[in-house]
UniProtKB/TrEMBL annotation:
Transmembrane segments: none annotated. InterPro entries: His_Pase_superF_clade-1 (IPR013078), His_PPase_superfam (IPR029033). It comes from the Eukaryota. This is Metal-independent phosphoserine phosphatase. It comes from Capsicum baccatum (Peruvian pepper). Pfam families: His_Phos_1.
């Protein structure tokens, strides 16, 4: 059961990191906001959360703990799955600390398939003002890749792998997913559609997700956009 997802999306860079942004990974070099979505850049230690971002992660952890207590969910039944990017890894560490869960223990798992969507080399380190161009392409054809990047359907494919792994390893657990804006909104899009799917394969999760991978579903992922640090129940 995937219960809550958390988005901590990015930080400013001013040679060293400075503060967290509300929507994108941002660079404060010359006041230019940029996208950083490649594995190579995303995993660099210099892109961990800055003080404001840490504060947001702490608040998210406290909010999550409150939800767990209200629902009488024991901490031993909680799992944290997170993207390997430095900003999400740092977020997961802060949240685990707020929950008093060992980040190095078996309750925390890094999943490469939760990484940021790669928008392609032509967008990497470019202004985040390019986002609307990508989303317009998604709405027109979610199976079309930005040049050298991932389409919505590509992201669904790897998120399905992550979901199957979480479902198989963490039955009966409440799973906190720490990822990025596009992957999480795409994740919720397919989960909602798969949950409502009625058909011969409705008992098989992967088949249900495959069945709802149609343009009319995938093109609407922006309807599930999250704010930075937002906690949201997805199933």
């Amino acid at each position: 059961m995937l219960r809550i997802s958390i988005r901590i999306e990015g930080v400013f860079i001013e040679q060293a990191f400075s503060s967290i942004s509300p929507d994108d990974f941002q660079s404060k070099l010359s006041q230019v906001y940029v996208l950083i979505a490649s594995r190579e850049n995303g995993k660099l230690e210099q892109y961990k959360l800055a003080p404001e971002g840490i504060k947001q992660a702490e608040l998210a952890g406290e909010s999550f703990l409150k939800v767990l207590k209200e629902d009488n969910i024991p901490l031993e039944n909680v799992r944290i799955c997170y993207s390997p990017f430095s900003r999400t890894t740092h977020t997961a560490q802060v949240v685990a600390s707020a929950l008093d869960i060992s980040f190095e223990g078996p309750q925390c798992l890094v999943l490469d398939d939760l990484r940021e969507r790669f928008f392609g080399p032509s967008y990497e380190l470019k202004s985040h003002d390019k986002y609307p161009d990508i989303w317009a392409l998604d709405e027109k054809d979610p199976f079309m890749q930005p040049e050298g990047g991932e389409s919505v359907a590509d992201v669904v494919s790897r998120l399905t792998n992550a979901l199957i792994k979480m479902e198989s390893q963490f039955q009966g657990c409440t799973v906190l997913v720490v990822s990025h804006g596009d992957p999480l909104q795409i994740f919720q899009t397919i989960l909602n559609a798969a949950k409502d799917f009625k058909g011969s394969c409705e008992n098989d999760l992967a088949s249900r997700i495959q069945a709802v991978q149609i343009p009319s579903v995938l093109s609407q992922h922006r309807n599930f956009a999250l704010q930075t640090g937002e906690l949201r129940s997805v199933v």
